[in-house]
Specification:
Largest sheet: 7 strands, mixed
Number of helices: 11
Strand content: 5-15%
Strand order of the largest sheet: 4-3-2-1-5-6-7
CATH architecture of the largest domain: 3-Layer(aba) Sandwich
Shape: globular
CATH superfamily of the largest domain: NAD(P)-binding Rossmann-like Domain
C-alpha cells in the first residue's frame, strides 16, 4: 500500500519537490508577511524580502532550503548555526558553501570570511530582520527572548518559542509567525503526493505539451503582429509547459499565501487577538467547529 506512505522515491510514486517543501513553505509564508505593507510599517521595515538580513539556526533539510530560497530571492543570510556553534558574515553567507565546508571539516566553524560564535544559541541574538529557528524546540524562551534583535521570527522548527517568549515578543513588538502553519509545507506536498498516487498520473503529464503548443502559437502571433522577436531566454521561459515540480511549487505557494492571508485577516478583524499564533489557533478551531456543525455533529 505505497500510496499510504509519503516521501517516497520518485520511481515508487513519490512527488518532485517534496525534499525542499518545508523550507520553501517557510519562505513563501514569510515572503507573504513581508509583502504586507501595514505589517512592515509597524515593524519599521520596507516591504518585500529583497535586501532583508536573515539568520537561520539549523542547517538540516529545512534550514538549508529556507536559507537557499531567501538568498535566491535577494535577502542576505548573515548568520547560520548548527549544534557545534554559529558563524556570522555581514556581507552574507552561501548556504551550499557552508554545507560543503561542514561536510569537509565536520563543522561550520572557521568558514572562510565568517566570524565564529561560541554557542549556536548566540545566533538567535544576532542583529537581523528575520530570524528562522529551524532546529530545536524551546530555544527561544523567557531567558533569552529579551535579547532577540530580529523584527520577524519564522518558526521553521516545531515549538522553537515558548509561551514566555511570546509574551516578551508581544511587549517588544516582534512579529512571530507560528509553526503550526508556517512549517506545514512538507505535509502539504505529502498531500499532493497522496493525490498523485490516487490518480496514478504524474502532475503535468496531461497538460504540459498542450500548454507549450498554446504558448508557442500565442508567441508566434505576438511576434508576427509586432514585427519583433523575443530573446531566446524569454522564448524559453514563455514556451515552458509546467513540469511536476513547477505545479507542486505553485500549489504550495498558493496554499501558504492563502493561509497567511486568512490568519492575518482574523488577527486584524479582532483587536482582542494578541498575536498571529492566537489568530492561527482561532482559524483552525473555527474550521473544525464549522465542519462539525455542517455535519450535524453538534448544533
Amino acid at each position: 500500500m505505497l500510496q499510504d506512505v509519503t516521501g517516497k522515491p520518485i520511481t515508487q510514486g513519490g512527488v518532485r519537490g517534496r525534499k525542499e517543501a518545508t523550507g520553501l513553505g517557510v519562505f513563501y509564508g514569510i515572503r507573504e508577511v513581508c509583502n504586507m505593507e501595514d505589517q512592515m510599517k509597524k515593524l519599521g521595515l520596507t516591504t518585500g524580502v529583497k535586501g532583508k538580513t536573515v539568520v537561520v539556526q539549523g542547517l538540516g533539510n529545512v534550514g538549508f532550503h529556507t536559507a537557499q530560497f531567501f538568498r535566491q530571492h535577494g535577502a542576505k543570510v548573515v548568520g547560520l548555526a548548527e549544534y557545534e556553534g554559529a558563524i556570522y558574515n555581514a556581507d552574507g553567507l552561501n548556504e551550499l558553501d557552508v554545507f560543503n565546508h561542514r561536510k569537509a571539516t565536520g563543522s561550520i566553524l572557521n568558514f572562510p570570511g565568517a566570524t565564529n560564535l561560541a554557542l549556536n544559541t548566540d545566533a538567535l541574538e544576532l542583529e537581523c530582520d528575520i530570524l528562522i529557528p529551524a532546529a530545536l524546540e524551546n530555544v527561544i524562551n523567557g531567558e533569552n527572548a529579551g535579547r532577540v534583535k530580529a523584527k520577524i521570527i519564522g518558526e521553521a522548527a516545531n515549538g522553537p518559542c515558548t509561551p514566555e517568549a511570546d509574551d516578551i515578543f508581544l511587549e517588544r513588538g516582534i512579529l512571530c509567525v507560528p509553526d503550526m502553519y508556517l512549517n506545514a509545507g512538507g505535509v502539504t506536498v505529502s498531500y499532493f503526493e497522496w493525490l498523485k498516487n490516487l490518480s496514478h498520473v504524474r502532475y503535468g503529464r496531461m497538460e504540459k505539451k498542450f500548454t507549450e503548443n498554446l504558448n508557442s502559437r500565442i508567441l508566434g502571433q505576438i511576434e508576427e503582429m509586432s514585427g519583433k522577436k523575443v530573446s531566446d531566454a524569454e522564448r524559453t521561459f514563455i514556451m515552458h509547459g509546467p513540469d511536476e515540480v513547477d505545479l507542486v511549487h505553485s500549489g504550495l505557494e498558493e496554499t501558504m499565501i492563502a493561509a497567511t492571508k486568512e490568519i492575518m485577516d482574523i488577527w486584524k478583524s479582532n483587536p482582542d487577538i494578541p498575536d498571529m499564533r492566537t489568530a492561527a489557533y482561532i482559524s483552525a478551531i473555527n474550521k473544525v467547529a464549522n465542519s462539525y456543525s455542517e455535519l450535524g455533529i453538534f448544533p
